[in-house]
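Revision sheet: structure tokens.
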Amino acid sequence: MGKFSDLKRMNKVTDFATSAAKRGGAFETSCSPEQILAWLKATRIQVVDESPTALSVNPIYKHGNVGSEVISAQVSAGSKLPTLVTIEVQLNAQPGSVNPNAIPPIFGLLSQVSKVDPTWQPV
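Predicted:
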């Protein structure tokens, strides 16, 4: 049962990361804003701009080059429950195109979120 639930959790993370790399997206979690931003900083990124509630980053490619894509994560109060945190992910990519370089940082962030809060939900 544990392996099936882990697979289901990772499929949910993968689906969201791929979707967010196409058109951005938002999710809600009970994780704190500080945790969210710290986890995003721990992925393969270069910080472009930072505030207490937002982070703009460039992904770092497998080869070590820094990408020109900008991933912005904005943390705000939850829309479904005020105790939740909403994280909005936006990209400066062309609409409808998958940005494969944006997937790893989003995937890394959500992998951490889903371990702590398996009830996180896309908004």
